[in-house]
Automatic annotation (TrEMBL):
The lineage of its organism: Bacteria, Pseudomonadati, Spirochaetota, Spirochaetia, Spirochaetales. PROSITE patterns: ADH_SHORT. The keyword Nucleus does not apply. GO terms for molecular function: 3-oxoacyl-[acyl-carrier-protein] reductase (NADPH) activity; NAD binding. This is 3-oxoacyl-[acyl-carrier-protein] reductase. It comes from Leadbettera azotonutricia (strain ATCC BAA-888 / DSM 13862 / ZAS-9) (Treponema azotonutricium). NADP(+) binds at residues 12-15, 37, 87, 152-156, 185. Its EC number is 1.1.1.100. Keywords: Fatty acid biosynthesis, Fatty acid metabolism, Lipid biosynthesis, Lipid metabolism, NADP, Oxidoreductase. Belongs to the short-chain dehydrogenases/reductases (SDR) family.
Amino acid sequence: MELQDKKALVTGASRGIGRAIADRFIAAGAEVWGIGTKEPEDMGERIEKASGRLHWVSADLGDLAATEKLAESLLKESGGFDILVNNAGITRDNLSFRMTLDDFQKVLDVNLTAAFLISRTIGRDMIRRRAGSIINMSSVVGIHGNGGQANYSASKAGLIGLTKSLAQEVASRGVRVNAIAPGFIASDMTNAMAAEAKEKTIEHIPLKRIGQPEDIAEAALFLASASSSYITGQIIAVDGGMFI
């Protein structure tokens, strides 16, 4: 199995992409610690199904001081992580001239600053052990921007800069850092879209379909495994060709 006996920390693991990644890693043999704001209703069932290889922590990553302490605590509890997936993210959409400073800052705190703090803590241990894979969940809007999402786009663009900088800093110690930039992926938000709007978006996707969380999970599995041992500092768009 690709991740046999590996330990992974996945943020934003309660649903959607994060949940799919956690489940895929477990299926590949990993032991996973998942972080989310709320514990899913079926968490007990998931933990039982994972035969003890899934651990859950409820936390608000917007509380930056608590987030740093949590990362240190989980590092001690696990004995060290082989894989870190910074997937947690929130949105507070609005046009820039109507967006409050609080809405701008909160998105950056959760999406970008928390990823930096967790990467710093977990990454130090990876450097010491001279091995590890850090995967940051960016977005195609972090590359191309999106009206009404200046805060979200800025946070995801920041993750790209963080990814490339960290990759240069830790490569000589055997640690790899990459990012995934999902496109139009099935989620609670896309499911709530009007059918006409959804169809219009799909028209601009060469593969003519909405992506699934499992599509992102497979990319994460590749970047987490030895199959990508010579890949670092890269941004992999999983968008169906939306921005060719």
